[in-house]
Amino acid sequence: MKPRILVAREVFPEVIERLSRHFEVDANQADVVLGVEGLKARLADKTGVMTAVSDPVTAEVIAAAPGLKAVCNFAVGYNNIDLAACTRAGILATNTPGVLDDTTADLAWALLMATARHIQTSEHWLRAGHWKGFRMTDWLGSDVHHATLGILGMGRIGQAVARRALGFDMNVIYHNRSRLPADKEAACRATWVDKATLLREADFLVLLLPYSAESHHIIGAAELAQMKPTAHLINVARGGIVDDAALVSALRQRRLAGAALDVFEGEPKFDPAFLELDNVTLTPHIGSSSRATRMAMAMTAADNLIAALSGQRPPNLINADAWR
Ligand code: 8YV
User: Fold this and answer.
1) Which residues of the chain have pLDDT under 70?
2) What are the residue boundaries of the structural domains of the chain, listed by start?
3) Residues 6 or more apart in contact with residue 21 via CB below 8 angstroms
4) N or C terminus of the chain with fewer C-beta within 10 Å?
5) Which residue's alpha carbon is at the smallest distance from atom 6 of ligand 1?
6) Tell me: the pLDDT tens digits for 295-305?
């Protein structure tokens, strides 16, 4: 008998087809968000699960799934998974690093350009019929070229964002707990600085950190106060890294020129105050959302699931202790 797995959110039919060759698949193609209770009910008889960031794989869910051997996240971030609980239960957990780096870096740039040049707000204004002709002072934006790009969190996506800055003749600075090796720094012409310098000097600050207890509200009122009033903040990483209430207040008081956010604290809910501000650009967590990339992510998660449930070490194992 084939092992039974759950695909917790809708995925492309090609992925279900592939998984069906190996498993008996319970596919949530109706895309109902299952939550803790739904996952507990659907995982009681499963050996593996493919999850998205909207699926909370908590200790309670794990306790309700005695046969579970693998949790394969359809994302690079895995703050939806209680990793320690997985490891204690001997469950292998995996993510999808690498395949979404360029697509997410592209979105960071789209948001950077949008906030710098008022793309969203000027388009809304035009659509609303306000454009009556040329005015010298309409929609004066911030120059991207020759500005200082600051990156907080310099993993693969941070480096991909930095490399794209070369074409804009930007000065690139970054802060990361560990400094990149010299060849990688050279490849993206980025200079390591301490966090205070990064906050003080960046014209555009892009956040690319994973969410954890340590990175919770790493950008709060105190950090925002250290930034230039002409600076823009771009978050394509995770909600909760930024204290959204503090950001609303800084944007409202024009202590910051603008922000562009793809992720929010408690998403899909977000602070409604953002909607009243004309200096913030908002997108609904679409960092990895190109067809090719979402397909690659889903196939990577499938590869991990197939390996894990056939006794092989999955390529993107994130809790090596569970393997040991
Ligand atoms: C995912 C993401 O598409 O990979 C991540 O960590 O944030 C996104 O790229 C989304 O979270 C769906 O799981």
Assistant:
1) none
2) 4-99+291-323, 101-282
3) none
4) N
5) 77
6) 999 999 999 99
